[in-house]
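Human: Respectfully, please carefully check these tokens:
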Amino acid sequence: MPMNSHSTVDEYTLDAHRVRLLFDRASRTYARSAVVQGELRARLLERLGVVKLQPRTVLDLGAASGQSSRALKERYPKAQVLALDFSLAMLQEAAHQQRWLRRFERIGANAERLPLRTEAIDLVFSNLMLAWCNDPDAIFRETSRVLRTEGLFTFTTFGPDTLKELRERFRIVDGHTHVHRFIDMHDLGDALLRAGFIEPVMDTERLTVTYPSLRALMRELHMSGAGNATAGRRRTWLGRRHFQTLERAFDAMRTEGAIPLSLEIVYGHAWRGARRPDRAPGHEFVVPISAVRSRVHK
């Protein structure tokens, strides 16, 4: 996943080299293990159905192993689709998503320094890439730079309530950071405005994912690359005694035989353009909140 590597370091600062390593290692298992990512990709693609847009050039920002790039090429067959990712191993796997008449370009790059011309892109699509970045302002500035005027940026990311049960229960065994710090929807909207996007529309959706056991959860996180990359992470293996303590804590959460975990999904949708002079910046942020609760069974 593309991300930045320089920000003020605190315990929640993400280690860029660690992120790259996690996704490189997971490149061959990502496609079959990233169930949540696949569900959100489908939902974000569905939202494009209501947008009257025929892009000439599409950027899949944080393409991973290419599933979104393939879907975007199928939706916009006449467009040039660019799959960009931080992990070269992921992009190698993305080659398997190519079709003879539906090919896309693959680019290894950092999302803060896009190797693209200014105003070269009509649509930027990004599924969960922002969850792996320290500085959304830098990402949004580059995205705004490469988008043409009236180009569209659409994305998903995680909100602060994501995996709150995991965060709370790990506090039982140590004081390290075990879950990333996810950015609030309103802060993302403000960052979009600072980057030159006009009237961003943000909304959230609450999902519950269920797992048969703590081990099943940890296995999926590992195989999808969604490991812990924070500076304050534990650097040694969790001992058997602590793991058993965690298992008991998670077993106490069981509902209908499964362990439920919360996901807060943030959707963003913004157009690149000149700010309207008759509106103050503080009044341009539109936030329709959809209190939708769904359940994704594992």
